[in-house]
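Suppose you are handed a protein chain with no further information: no name, no annotation, nothing but its sequence. What can you learn? This example shows the usual starting point.
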Amino acid sequence: MTEAKTDPRILRTRKLIMDSFIELSGKKEFKDITIKDITTEAMVNRATFYYHFADKYDLLEKVLSEVLLINLNCDLIGQSELNEEMISNIFLAITNFQNSLSNRCHRGYEDTIARIIKEQLEIIFYKMLLKRHSTDGDEALKITAVMLSWGLYGASVEWRRNSEVPPEKFIKLAIPYITYGINFDSTN
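A reasonable first move is to predict its three-dimensional structure. Written in C-alpha cells, the prediction is:
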C-alpha cells in the first residue's frame, strides 16, 4: 500500500500560517495575538486557518513542537546511538530551544512548553533505547525514557535559572552519572 502524498500547497499554507504566528509572537504577547492578526499576517482567510488548526493554542503547540524537532535535528538523532555525546547534544538542543523562546513565549506557557519538550524527548529516548535493547514494548524502557526526558528537561530549567557556566560544561558534569549510574566514582 502506498502512502498518500500531501498536496504541497497545503504544506506551504500551513507553514505560512506558522511562520506568520512566529513573526507576530516576536511583536506581541501570545495572549494579545488574535486569529485575525494571524490570518492578516499570513494573508489567508479564517476558514483556511481553521482547516489547519483548531485554535491559536493548537497552533502554539504545533509551532513549539516543530521548532523543538528542528532544534533536536530528529533525523540525525533517530539514526544515532544513545551515548554521552548524544545526551549532551540533546541537552544543548533543549537549552537552545528554551533560549529561542525566551523572547517569544512569555510567562504562562511554561507548562505547555514543558509538556511538549518532555513528550518529544520520551519518544526519542524510547526509540534509542529500543535500538540498544531489542525488547519491543518493554515497560522498563518506557519508564527509563520518561526519566531521561524529565531529567534532561529539569536540568535545562535549572541551568537556565541558576547557572553561570555554559550549557556544555553544565551537562558535562552530569554525563558520567547518567551514563554509568549513581555508583560512578569520579575520583578514578
